[in-house]
Amino acid sequence: MTDAVAAIPEEAAPVPLLEPKEGIPPVVVDEQALADTVAAFAAGTGPVAVDAERASGYRYGQRAYLIQLRRAGAGSALIDPIACPDLSALGAALADAEWVVHAATQDLPCLAEVGMRPQRLFDTELAGRIAGFARVGLGAMTESVLGLSLAKEHSAVDWSTRPLPEPWLRYAALDVEVLVELRDALEQELDAQGKLAWALEEFAAIAAAPPRPAQRTDPWRRTSQLHKIRRRRQLAVVRELWLARDKMAQERDVSPGRVLSDAAIVNAALAMPLNAAALQAVQGFGPRVHRRQLDQWLAAVQRGREVPENQLPASAAPHDGPPPPRAWAEKDPVAAARLSGARSAVTELAERHHLPAENLITPDHVRRVSWEPPADADAEGIAAALRRLGARQWQVDLVAPALEAAFAAAAATAAQG
């Protein structure tokens, strides 16, 4: 770190942030209160701190159950997006403001669902990464940069609870209390390190990206412990159980893991039970599972058994990129050498600039360019390839020359061999 941010001395205890400056604002739950909030924030000045609370692990999907805002001249606001599901007027009122968000990619999708999308933003978590902070959670950043401690004991509660308890509301209001102050300190730090332009380019890319990423192909392949499954028929059972669980979770609006655990799905696919008694003996399907649910799970197992051979899922997930790196040495030793050199070069460059390697350049970009380099593998050709993959210009400027050198070294070694 530079001296641009006057980080608190290590021996100094952080000051607890216990109460919002103006107290806990009332939760906005009706049209009149929402209209008043929109007017207040439209009249406010400067950046607006924005946060959202979801019910991850409790409810299906990632919708927002509470939205917090703070802006100079407007104070803080807590909005119930279940009672007020259309916040497009608020989004329009904040269209010209810079949004200050911590870990923006987590919150922007659920904010977009209620009509709120930023045109400009400052992501304090990403700023912390680029600035080289070892811990970038909001609590850790607030402590190390501002010398204030935020209580985080309510971060994983069920925010779909109604009414929301007062301690939870206090916690939520405090999350935006000093976010703009944190933003200003981080901007000063990034500027002192010569990294502010990098961060601004990253923020612009996030703001311009689609609000929700494209649907994954075969999302059931994200089932934990799937590596235990070796046979395609068993994979078909995993898929059928996953799809049945997802449908049930969506209908009940609960987290899929609360309907059936990933471990239970994998255990059933390994056991391939033929009847309800055999399924009930599988770990995760004990006596507390209702008979009707047990029949539904057994039916899913049976559907997996009956999938025609030519429709069984592939052993590995389909992909449009290079093969897994572990296979490169056999398939293309020169490409393997390029990747090894490229990874070393990126690691060294990241350490030199004090930021995580994955923020310096997306690892998949390095793999793709290493597997299939441009015909002219000089810095200019590599730069063009990285830009086509979506790398930002600051990343290209830093990484392309390093990859050129790594590729040239790999080619020289191959020529000698």
From TrEMBL:
Q: Where is the HRDC domain?
A: 231-311
Instruction: Name the Gene Ontology molecular function terms of this record.
Output: 3'-5' exonuclease activity; nucleic acid binding; nucleotide binding
InterPro entries, per the entry: 3'-5'_exonuclease_dom, Exo_C, HRDC-like_sf, HRDC_dom, HRDC_dom_sf, RNase_D-like, RNaseH-like_sf, RNaseH_sf
Superkingdom of source: Bacteria
Q: What is this protein called?
A: 3'-5' exonuclease
Tell me, which GO biological process terms does this entry list?
Answer: nucleobase-containing compound metabolic process
Q: Where is this region: Disordered?
A: 310-329
**Record SMART domains:** 35EXOc (SM00474), HRDC (SM00341)
Q: Which organism is it from?
A: Streptomyces rubellomurinus (strain ATCC 31215)
Write out the transmembrane intervals. none
Phylogenetic classification of the source organism? Bacteria, Bacillati, Actinomycetota, Actinomycetes, Kitasatosporales
Q: Which UniProt keywords apply?
A: Exonuclease, Hydrolase, Nuclease
Which Pfam families does its entry note?
DNA_pol_A_exo1 (PF01612), DNA_pol_A_exoN (PF18305), HRDC (PF00570)
